[in-house]
Specification:
mainly alpha, 2 strands, Glutaredoxin
């Protein structure tokens, strides 16, 4: 979608280059969400992780198992967006 809109972007393959705990904390702060809110339900159940776990536990788990974190996430300056469904990204980009 970004190529179609002519928007320059950098793609990060989260499985090959996962976010560190510090990066996850930064993204959560930009999103205004807790780790529990960004936890993928099916993956977390399979990993034995629960939204009831502590923020530190969830962030550590997300850093170690990047598939636990909801995605895709778009970052622009101090702002971030969980781009699900992908159509919300187009509207968000128009506000930048």
């Amino acid at each position: 979608m970004l190529k179609e809109l002519g928007v320059p972007f950098t793609y990060r393959e989260y499985r090959d280059d996962p976010l560190s705990e510090a990066e996850i904390r930064d993204v959560l702060a930009r999103l205004g969400k807790s780790a529990a809110e960004m936890l993928r339900p099916k993956e977390s159940a399979a990993a034995g992780i629960s939204a009831a776990d502590s923020e530190d536990t969830l962030i550590g788990a997300m850093a170690g198992q990047p598939t636990l974190l909801q995605r895709p996430i778009a970052l622009a300056g101090a702002r971030a967006l969980l781009a699900r469904p992908a159509d919300v990204l187009k509207d968000w980009l128009a506000t930048l």
